[in-house]
Amino acid sequence: MKKSAVYTRTGDSGTTSLVGGKRVSKADKRIESYGTTDELNAFTGLLMTELSDREDLEFMRFVQHKLFTIGSYLATDQESTELKMESRVSPESIIRIEQEIDRIDNSLPKFKHFILPGGSRSAALAHVCRTVCRRAERQIYRLKETSMVEEPVLVFINRLSDYFFVLARKECIKNNGEEIIWDNTCI
Fold it and tell me: What's the rounded Cα separation, in Å, for the pair 35 and 43?
């Protein structure tokens, strides 16, 4: 079997291929949306290196696979290429993420104040994932202004940022016991 080339030189002029072969600008909304999703997947992998809870790690592996699925979905221009079934986000995936949010949130104290990112390395990384997830969501909504984006993709990404928030809280409390509360009197 011949080894595939890492570089093709086809993107040297500022364009790249979507699933199906259509070439678009590397600054296209579609590229921004799946590029940011890919960035989130990379930060998710980094966060995983700091986690010790087996359940969290298993769920994060699921998240990484779903982010790759969403990247594939976003890389497909459905006006010119039929979407593959494995590129869809199922209602079951949304239920699974909601159940995981509930599982973690039920173990946390009720929060009454705004919480600042930080407190421990894993909590800070979870907050980075949360903010990159929010940026990915904004990019996908920009894409939705001109292209069809199915509701489950948007719902999953929205829930995922909530998941990273509760995971950050859990990690902060687990690692140092105290969340950083925003001091609204700070001048």
Answer: 12
Distances (CA, A) of 167 to 107, 170, 173, 176: 11, 5, 10, 14
Look-up: residue for tokens 């903010």?
Answer: 131
b/e for 142-174, b at 16 or more Cβ within 10 A?
Answer: ebbeeeebeebbbbbbebbbbbbbbbbbbbbbb
**pLDDT tens, 86-106?**
767 899 999 999 999 999 999
CA pseudo-torsion sign 100, 59, 116, 37: negative
Measured distance CA(187)–CA(80) in Å, rounded = 55
Tell me the C-alpha distance between 160 and 67, whole Å: 10
d(Cα 183, Cα 185) in Å, to the nearest integer?
A: 5
One-letter-per-residue 3-state SS of 1-26: CCCCCCCCCCCCCCEEECECCCEEEC
113: helix, strand or coil: coil
**Mean model confidence pLDDT for the chain:** 86
Q: Enter the pTM of the model.
A: 0.88
Beta bridge partners of 19: 76
With beta carbons less than 8 A apart as the criterion, state whether 163 and 110 touch. no
